Amino acid sequence: MSLNVHNITIHRWLPNLAIALALLISAGCSLFPSGDPAKSVTLNRPSLPPIQPSRDAVQLEVFFVDRPADDPLLGQTLWREVDQIAAIPAETREILHKNGFQIGHSGSSPPQAIQSLLGLVADARSSDNISGKPMVGLRKSLPPGMETELQASDARERCRVYITDATGEKPYEFDNARCVFRMKSARLRDGWIKIDFQPEIHHGELKARHTPTDEGWTYQNRQKIDVRNAQQFSLTMNVGEIAVITATNDQPESMGELFFRHDDDGGMKQRLLIVRVADCGKGATTY
């Protein structure tokens, strides 16, 4: 008797199920995912799988930290704890200093000053009058041999800068200037990588220009680019290690000041570029 009741219940329920399925199909829904991207969107599912970075690519964590220019953390407090000697050859370090750049290198255990700058720990010596957004972070995937651009400052409508090279110091003026680091990585043995940093000033009108590429010459929309090869520097790094790049405090109207200092409502702010190696890519050995 109970079996008959159960069968009767099923027979009564089946027509309702058929009606519900028909309504779903007519509305464009699907119970099972298909290869049709439109149906995937209807189901609120991603139509394409996320793009995975190349296993060979170096993964970099990049932070821009803005502080008041007179913040004690930007002076001897920082540079006592960050290596400036072994990171770059003396000749390159001298020309960089003359152009207002200051570069340091830290191991995978960041010193107290860097932890304070990144907000990992509090520091009583730091200024308390910081306004706005003091830090911006992003992640860069850099395949070996490929280049990427990293803009270090906001565009300047017009600026004047003194640049020092082998012939001496000369003044230059730029319109619509953007300060950019062109970065390129190369894998070394035992999992170490070398990262090249080339400071560039992109300026002038954005328009189609004859541009060299790996495939030959082509036209690309870009500005004029002022490249100073003498100021290119390289750092050899492994997973977790950190590079710190900013301006010196004694080189007014220098490239370093153009890249890393700006006026913020009457108060001078200084920017630091902090780059950490998150992954050396496939086949790398971590030390």
Which secondary structure elements does this structure contain, and how are they paired or packed?
Layout: H1 2-26, H2 37-42, E1 58-68, H3 76-79, H4 90-98, E2 101-106, H5 112-117, E3 135-142, E4 147-151, E5 156-165, E6 168-187, E7 193-213, E8 216-227, E9 233-237, E10 242-247, H6 255-260, E11 261-264, E12 267-279
Antiparallel strand pairs: 1-3, 1-12, 2-10, 4-6, 5-6, 6-7, 7-8, 7-9, 10-12, 11-12
The largest sheet, given as strand count, sense and whether it forms a barrel, is: 6 strands, antiparallel
User: Percent of residues in beta strands?
Assistant: 35-45%
Distance between the termini: 75 Å
Backbone CA Rg: 28 Å
Helix/strand/pairing category: alpha+beta
Number of helices: 6
Order of helices and strands: HHEHHEHEEEEEEEEHEE
Summarize model confidence as the mean pLDDT.
77
- DSSP, total strands: 12
Task: Describe this entry's structure for a reader.
The chain is 20% helix and 42% strand. It is globular, with a radius of gyration of 28 Å. It has helices at 2-26, 37-42, 76-79, 90-98, 112-117, 255-260, and strands spanning 58-68, 101-106, 135-142, 147-151, 156-165, 168-187, 193-213, 216-227, 233-237, 242-247, 261-264, 267-279. The strands form two sheets. Strands 1, 2, 3, 10, 11 and 12 form a six-stranded antiparallel beta sheet that branches. Strands 4, 5, 6, 7, 8 and 9 form a six-stranded antiparallel beta sheet that branches. It starts with a helix and ends in an 8-residue tail after the last strand. The protein has 287 residues and is α+β, with helices and mostly antiparallel strands. The longest helix has 25 residues, at 2-26.
